């Protein structure tokens, strides 16, 4: 199917590349179908665009938390596990939404630490796991120091 996007123009999307978020995303509950888009000339993408298929003007930048030094260990409720179709651990991808905010008059890009996306990559279904507080089971690594 051909989809018009805000950032990439017309893009051809195969139906098996659609990711369903049955509950939508926080603030965007009406958009339930998404796909991942990235520039083709990049060998390995560090970030992706999560493009809504329900609203061509809606897109989010997302990243693997590991690229930012985060490691999530999330506990899913029975309802969340059922929504994700009881995935195997190796079929789960956790991603962070990036957002832009103004700090001292400058635009700063930050990850949304409290509401990561959890995606069953095999079933192509996901949810946004909203956490009221950060728990100590999130580990940070210092990416600037030698390993």
TrEMBL record:
Pfam families: FliW (PF02623). The keyword Cell division does not apply. Its main location: cytoplasm. InterPro entries: Flagellar_assembly_factor_FliW (IPR003775), Flagellar_assmbl_FliW_dom_sf (IPR024046). It is found in: Cytoplasm. GO terms for cellular component: cytoplasm. This is Flagellar assembly factor FliW. It comes from Dechloromonas denitrificans. The gene is fliW.
């Amino acid at each position: 199917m051909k989809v018009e996007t805000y950032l990439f123009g017309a893009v051809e999307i195969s139906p098996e590349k659609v990711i369903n978020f049955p509950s939508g995303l926080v603030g965007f509950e009406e958009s339930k179908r998404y796909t991942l888009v990235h520039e083709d000339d990049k060998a390995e993408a560090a970030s992706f665009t999560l493009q809504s298929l329900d609203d061509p003007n809606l897109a989010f930048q997302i990243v693997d938390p590991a690229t930012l030094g985060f490691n999530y260990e999330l506990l899913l409720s029975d309802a969340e596990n059922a929504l994700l179709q009881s995935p195997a651990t190796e079929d789960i991808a956790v991603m962070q939404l990036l957002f832009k905010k103004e700090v001292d008059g400058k635009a700063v890009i930050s990850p949304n630490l409290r509401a990561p996306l959890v995606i069953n990559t095999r079933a192509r279904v996901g949810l946004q796991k909203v956490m009221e507080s950060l728990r100590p089971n999130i580990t940070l690594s210092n990416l600037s120091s030698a390993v």
